[in-house]
C-alpha cells in the first residue's frame, strides 16, 4: 500500500479553494481532501509550503513540445513531448495529428501504441485526436492544403481500421459526406469536432444532431457572420455562442485569442463549456528562434518570437508554443478569470468533454491522483500522475 500526504497547501476543489488543506493519496487514488488534521503513519509527506494543489491539467489538443512533434513518426517524439508537457502541469494529453498522407498517419498510430506501452516520466496519453484531412480549403490555416479532401467511407473507415485509439476527429461539417461521418463516429464513441470550416449556423445545427458537439480552437480558422446576396448568415463562431449544448476550446496563450475575446467567451459560455488548450507545436517549452511546424522531415520552417510561432516573413501566426501552465496564467492574469474557474477549464471541463470525468479532472475522493503543486504565478513545482511524481522542483 502506498500512502502520500500533501499538507500545508491551498486545495482547488470544483467549487472553491480550501485554505490550509491536506490531500491524502492511497495507491494512486485520492483518499481525502480536507482541512482536518489527520495523522497517518508510514505516509510519504509533502509540505505544500502554502502553495496551491490542483487537479492535473488535461490538454485536449497538442501537436508536440520539447522540439518533438507527434508526426515525427518516432516513439521518442511521443515520450519526450509528454515529458516536456508534464513539467508544465499536463498530466493527460491527447496527441494531435496534422493533415497528411494516410501512410504518415498510420506510422504515427503505430508509434503512439508503442509509446503507450512504455513506462515514462511524462504526461499520460488519453487517445489520438485527428485534425483533418477533411477541411475547407478556404480555412486550411497552417494545415497543408495539398492533403485536404472530402470524407468518403472507404477512406475514413480505412483510417479507423488502423487503430482503436482514435477518440476525436476534427472535421469541417459542411463538406459533402461530413454529416454521415459524424453519425458514424458518434455511434463508435468517437467525438466529431467542428474545425477549419466555413459552415453557417444552419449547417452547424445539422452537424450538432449528427454528434458534432464541440468546436476546435474557437475563433481560429472558422466562419463568422457572412453576407450572401445581401443577406447575413451566422457562422460557426455565432453557433458556438448560441447553442447551449456546444462546448468550445480556446488557445489561451493571449495571442491567438486576445483578452477581450477570452472574456467574451467566458461571459457567454462559462467555465463549464470551455476547455483551454495549447494546440502547441514542437517549439513549446523551447527557446525563441527557428523551428519546424509539422514533422521534422516534411514540415515548414517557422520563427518563434513574442510567445508564438510565425511564418518566416512574419505575415501570420504559424502555431502555438503554449504549455498548460501558461493557459492558466493567461486566463487569470490577463483575462482576469478567477483561478478556480481557470483550473476548471483545464481539468474538469476537458474531462467531461472526453467522457472521463468519473476518474479525472477534479480533487475528489476516488478519482485518480493526478495532482499539481504550483505557486501564485502558476509556476509548476510538482506534477503527480496516479500517485507517481513525474516532475519535482520543490
Automatic annotation (TrEMBL):
Q: Name the catalytic site residues.
A: 279 (proton donor/acceptor)
> Sorted alphabetically, which keywords does the UniProt record give?
Carbohydrate metabolism, Hydrolase, Metal-binding
Q: Which residues bind Zn(2+)?
A: 131, 196, 217
One of the entry's Gene Ontology molecular-function terms is:
N-acetylglucosamine-6-phosphate deacetylase activity
> For this chain's UniProt record, which GO biological process terms are given?
N-acetylglucosamine catabolic process
- Please share the entry's free-text remark on the cofactor: Binds 1 divalent metal cation per subunit.
Q: Which InterPro entries match?
A: Amidohydro-rel (IPR006680), GlcNAc_6-P_deAcase (IPR003764), Metal-dep_hydrolase_composite (IPR011059), Metal_Hydrolase (IPR032466)
- Pfam families (UniProt xref): Amidohydro_1
Q: What is this protein called?
A: N-acetylglucosamine 6-phosphate deacetylase
Organism encoding this protein: Bacteroides xylanisolvens
